[in-house]
Amino acid sequence: MARLADYFVLVGYDHDKRGSGDGQGRIIQRFPEKEWEDNPFPQGIQLFCQPSGWHLVLERKSPNFFVAVLTDINSERHYCACFTFWEAVESSQPQKNHTNDVDDEEDSKFVQAPQLFAPKSLVLVSQLDHTEVFRNCLGLIYTIYIDSLNFPLESVIGNLLTCIIPITGGSQRTISLGAGDRQVIQTPVNDALPVSGCSVALLLKQLGINNVLELFCAALTEHKILFLSSSYQRLTEACRALLALMFPLKYSFTYIPILPAQLLEVLSSPTPFIIGIHSSFRAEMQDLLDVIVADLDGGTVLIPECIHISVLPEPHLLQTQTALSMVLDPELEYADYAFPPSSMSASSMKFQDKEIRAVFLRLFAQLFQGYRWCLQIIRIHPEPVIRFHKVAFLAQRGLLDVDFLTKVLEGMAFARFVSERGSPYRPCDLFDELVANEIERIRSEEGNAQKVLKHVKEISEQLHRNENPYPAVAMHKIQKPKEGSHLRVQQNTFPHLDEGTVQWIVDQATAKLKNAPPAVKAEMKCMVPMGPPSATMIDQNGIVLANSARRLEVVRNCITYIFENKILEAKKLLPAMLRALKGRAARQCLTQELNSHVLQNRAVLDNQQFDYIVRMMNCALQDCTPLDEHLVAAALLPLVTAFCRKLGSGVTQFAYSCIQEHLVWTNLQFWEAMFYSDVQNHIRALYLEVDGDHPSETGCDSIKKQQRSALEVAAEQLRMWPTRSKEKQQELIDKEESIVYSQAIHYGNRLTYLLLPLDTSKNRLLRSTAVGDLESVSNSFVTNSIAGSVAESYDTESGFEDAETSDVANSVVRFINRFVDKVCTESGVSNDHLKALHANLPDIVQMHIETLDAVHRESKRHPPIQKPKLLRPALLVGEELVMEGLRVNLVPDGREESVGGSLGGPPILPAEGAIFLTTYRIIFKGAPIETLAGEQTVIRSFPVASFAKEKKINQQSRTDQDSQDGLQLRSSTFQLMKITFDEEVASELVEIFRKHIHKLRYPQYVQSTFAFTVGQSPKQVVESKQKEKNPSLRTMSKNIMKNAKKTIGRQYVTRKKYTPPTWDQRATPHGDNLDQISVSEEIEQSALTLSTTIRSDKSTMSHMVERACCRDYQRLGLGTLSNSLTRSKNEPFRITTVNRMYSVCRSYPSLLIIPQTIQDSTMQRISRCYRQNRFPVVCWRNSRTKAVLLRSAGLHGKSVVGLFKSQNAPAADPSQTDSTSLAQEKYLQAVINSMPHYADTGGRNTLSGFTSAHMNSSDSSDKQRQPKISVLMKQVMGGKEEMTNTFSRGGKWGSMRGSGRLSAYSLNSDVGLRLAGKDTLSPQANGGPLDSHYLRQPRAGLYIIGEKSQLKGAKQDPSQQWEVVPIDIFDARHVKTSFKKLMKACVPSSASTDPNQSYYRSLEESDWLSQLHKLLQVSVLVVELLDNGSSVLISLEDGWDVTTQVVSLVQLLSDQHYRTLEGFRLLVEKEWLSFGHRFSHRGAQTMASQSSGFTPVFLQFLDCVHQIHLQFPMEFEFSLHYLKFLAYHYVSNRFRTFLLDSDHERIELGLMYEEKGERKNQHAYKSVWDYIDRLSKKTPVFFNYLYAPEDGEVLRPYGNISNLKVWDYYTHETLSEGPPYDWELVYSRREQVDDGERAPRTQRKIVWPCYDNQNKTEPDAISKLLEEMQSLESELGQVPDKWKETWDKIKTTQRTESKQEGKHLSSSSLLMSSSLSHHRRSQCVYLHEAAVGSTLNLSLDTDSSTTSTPSSGVMGRKSTSTLYSQFQTSESEHRSYEGILYKRGGALLKAWKPRWFVLDKTKHQLRYYDSKSDTDVKGLVDLTEVESVTLGTATLGAPKNIEDKAFFDLKTTKRVYNFCAQDSQSAQQWIDKIQSCLSDA
Predict the structure, then answer these.
(1) What is the rounded end-to-end Cα distance, in angstroms, of the chain?
(2) Residues 6+ away with beta carbon under 8 Å from 868
(3) How far apart are CA 1432 and CA 1436, in angstroms?
(4) N or C: which end of the chain has fewer CB within 10 A?
(5) How does DSSP assign 1801-1844, residue by residue?
(6) Digit-coded pLDDT (tens) for 715-766
(7) Is the pTM here over 0.85, yes or no?
């Protein structure tokens, strides 16, 4: 029973304080004046009566009512019902302070103006929440006052204050206040369930489902929530609704449904809250960055960006949303029905409210299911002490990673939930029934909407019955005021009430209550049902069953083998078992199996068994998540003190000493949970034993008791507790405390075992966790009351202070003291016991330290099981390891070669080894797991700069035992690594490995790539300023000057300010010769050029002139360069320096070829017409027809129109555009006029002049070429059957699209070009020439190959002398996409059985071959045009991708010079490097270009060259391996050649004119060309033996897809040595010969596909013969000649033989003859398919497809000996200097021996013999490998009586040779001779 109202208060406006700011309220009267003892009067009530402040108003307002909630210091809530009305203010009072100064414009018949009204509030304060009753009671008092009813207010108020009603029980109570009124008060059946009325339904109606769910989650996860509304009562209802939704949890933080304006600073509180404020204060909420604001009126919830709300986990979120929508909108389900049911409508608000609450109650039942099984009862008597095992709960539910539930369990609300509901013996409510009995039903009904809705309605009925147990009876009778009574003019003020009368009534009622018998509330306590255990529920859900039964069988078998001592069997299963231990079920199985082998708490093992068991334990602990680790550690804790091994007499090592490296042992929360779990088990056993003393129990009852849980036992004891005697009660209390005390001692020992390291002298403890921080890990709220004082004092008083161990011991003692103090305080252990514990701990620790010393000493003699040794990879000079090897398994991918299969051979993969990350490469090195191939070494690597994509994988293990986590690394060098990490590799290391890869792959600056950092000590990169998007010329010039001076060492520095010249000034000549390149001109301060900023002398321009492209221009006759850099006026073209400052075009080179007649001043205007300012320049000239090849970027849109405008059209307004177009036309005309046959005919483009000048003298082959152009043009442009009017004037339009993939040489449609004439032509059936009139058709002097999309809509003027060929061509995006598909096709990540995903289907879908086809097609067309006398301008895209590809291919096909090694280098340097192909951008070499992706435009070009090479194998000096080498290293970043995007950028970094002498280390090459040159001198790896070119041969390859082959660079690999493109790495493993000792070699060879280097293992015939020649020369004491010299001599001999033999040519001479027939393609194009070997492979790999000769095709055995005798030379020819030197042996203790040394400058070798007369070479030193020759010092065993300066050392790349001459003078001579020999090289 409780009072309906505790206080009645009359609060009014305080007129005495009107003058100071806002008005204030004051309490006028309060009844009773004396405070109740059990309920003191809440302070500050006047603030809550007017939350917006006390103000006077000009109009009388209607009375209002709301309920505010106040919380006192004891967390008790007081409900303050406020009824406010307004009274007139006496006119005599000054009318100053009113806020609503509204001028009354019209008089009211009730109100006299000006009149002010003051608020007055009737307040009811109660601890009960009966809103409607309070409204009625206060309304009745107001009615009596306003209507002057004949009822005394004092008696009404007295009756109100003395009204006593029941709190709970579900009874109805009728009350009356003595004013003719009657009310029925309904009490809830169970006060534990909140009463919500309609508030929850109203909240959902206001905010919607999702918003309410967000607020619900925010409240549960302790965020700040603020409600806004213009209604105070709505604020209270919303807050009440949110609390009702949280049931069974109770909100424990600040709760203020209505916050007064004066207390707004409360919103800045750091603690969570639920607060409501009036929406008029919305503007003051702007600064609240961590508050969730819910606007009830607007229906919105605003969540700040900085707040992350953990949402409900799926599927609970979706289920809750669905159920709520069914409740709120039941018609939704039938909205689409054709015949919806008629009776479907939503419930009333009151029922809807309960249905919504039922949905949330079901949700909590699902979230907390099985929670009672994770409650740990520590003490039962005298009071229950209960803890919740959070980790066990989350683990059993499989929700360890659910953020929402973790936060809820860590919150204050759940802690209160455990304390209130944890007791096993208490009253139960609806939630307990749901958790215990309805979980199975909830789970079974998931997904069935009707069943869910039915269950929701059942729960809602119980909730409704709890609030309304009886049918509502209309017995209320409440007087209400007459309508409009508050507006009466004449109103009396509220009367002053007589305190005495009211107090007398209250006293009378109080006295009567004291005499009445006390009301005893019958508590219906019972045993709380446990519900189904979590484990069974999870098993049914299939969450825990992550490991198959087969994997668990592996675990069991492996453990059985170990204990049966079948170590070999166990070793086989161990890898699979360790992988299986990543699953939770397998770890659980491990602990169960190990438990079964423990007898009487001890299991003694031998050394191998012990090592295996320890390794399993470590593995089980290592792979856990942080929370899951607690469960595994808990299961292993009893085992680590059981398993042990004997180390010696009396020395036993336990398993705990080997598993201490896991952080779980330093986690206080883990030890608390373990301690409480053990205490609970002992207390359960105690009471089972106490109850087991009753002999009357049957056996069945005894078994049932034994199966009861600890909570059930505790409930029974709590029920029986009042019936026990006090002696028995005290005895049980003592027994419980004894259990806790003994367990504390036990855990003190356990902590000592696992915290003290085996080697205590290292002073390391608790790994990376600081001891002082460990308290924060615990969830317990008990403070350490004694640890601070007692533990510290006992540390100092303990009897040991060993210098070595004191730190470790003290740390352990402090940690254990903290743990013991915490758990014992919570468990109610007495202070005496606690002090005794603290006193004993230091001695326990010290005793254990002494024991560990002996164990540590003995354990050193027993090494653990060793895993296979990691093989370290060979590294390049300057290459450094970034990360040491991580132990991994390399697993097979989609390539079947490595796994045996149809190709035969043992499976090379999977292989076990390690993955290494260096500054250059990602390398795997290991050995196959398969025993038959286990002796081999597997190497797979790729440059880290080519890393393309990373993907996390979950690989199924080989024995199908478990899945392994790993990585899939894909490279743009067509390599793929699928690796799975060993169990010993921590996940942190894997993350570091990944981050390092990305950091190396995408450095911030290009200077950070390997090509720059190789061989250097790491330097801090100075960050350069961000480049301007469009830098001015001034800025650019300054940057160029600054960088050039810094990098090249310029001495000249100008101090004057640099002002850029105008364009006119730049065009002004300095001399008579307008375009002369001057290197001696003085430095103009007003116009400082790049040639003067880089160097002060003539060296810069000399560099430019000496560059390869300039030499090539000279060779082509495009610009003669003399010493004075003058040119002849008669030449049609000249070299211009207009771009020497890179001011016209930054991506072009500094020297360019333009027509003679074009002035530099016009180039700037012309460049603006083209994208990126890349204007047309000449890059090649046909030596026969004098036609030129030009390149440029595509035209801008406006420039396209200008290009086709008639030259003679009158211009009304000559604008800048017109002048630009005119200059452009002049430029193109100048190109046309440069060709002699066009210039001679007066500029008109007719073919007659051409025919007369050239055709008559040409041979028949030229005539046969003519018809090809129409065919090719038709293929490229792909015309239609009917030509439109566009072609009426000679039609030049078409599309490349028509060619498709299967383009054929067909002439089905008219092309409509001048090339083909206006009439449709039909070729002869045999493909011969057309009619002769075709040759006389007019041909354009210049063809412009442009993009069709850019040229759309432009019309050709018939008077213009050039023609445009618009084509559809792919762009860089298509190349990038195609390349990705090609990589996946050639190197699939997994084998596919889907026929739609076959290799050929994937290859076709990639479109790579289609793009090659288009490139070759366009290139052949351009070749034909050039060969027939028309110049061609390639003007595509930005001029640096497709344009570069086509221009390069055209020159390669047309000019045989580019098919040599030197020529191809020149071609790449000129067209790709100088003309600014964006290697860095397309290769995504830096972080800035990472987003653009990898686009292999250059690789596509190399593939085209490869296709041409296959069709014309005798036309190329270089081999296919050369192309592969470039394809590999252009993305490897080993060399600087292919870095940066233009010459301009290379000059800025000082790379353009690097001196050769700058190279510190001869093996750290900066240029790939230098490397190739040096390597070519050693070995013919890049040479093509079939090279026999035809003079002036123009190649016309077939471009159809059927003629194209997939490059084996994409598909082949060599697992034995890795990629064969780093020569030092692949061939550094050759057998080294020292002191004449050679290791024996077997003659038997086994060649495995994809593993062996077939070219190296089985060399081709030529290579084999050269090897035999080498061996013969060595046998005869000759040093072998360089291979090129030998080869040239052989070719010379063959030519001589062929001349002598005349017509009888041998096959060998045929191959090497240079006078072969023109038609050689058909004979040779497929020879490579039949070849078995490869080209010459003395010491380096080449490609198998380069060989086109049968093994006996070059020369027979007879010619070998003949050649050898013919070229045999005398010894004296190769002896430059010789004499006796003492040489020290290679081994450490080898003696010094005198040898006869011969220095051979010709062979570049230092050979030695036993004596001068000896002819057998005992050894040699290759001088190409010598790094330095320095004076040495005498060492142990050196010849005596020799001066110190007679010693010198010879350092090579492999070793250091120690020599000793007879005297110092002789030594110096040797040093000089060797150094001169080195310099000559």
Answers:
(1) 113
(2) 912, 913, 927
(3) 12
(4) C
(5) TTTTEEEEESSTT--S--EEEEGGGEEEEEE----TTPPTT--G
(6) 777 877 878 888 887 888 888 888 888 888 888 888 888 888 877 765 444 4
(7) no
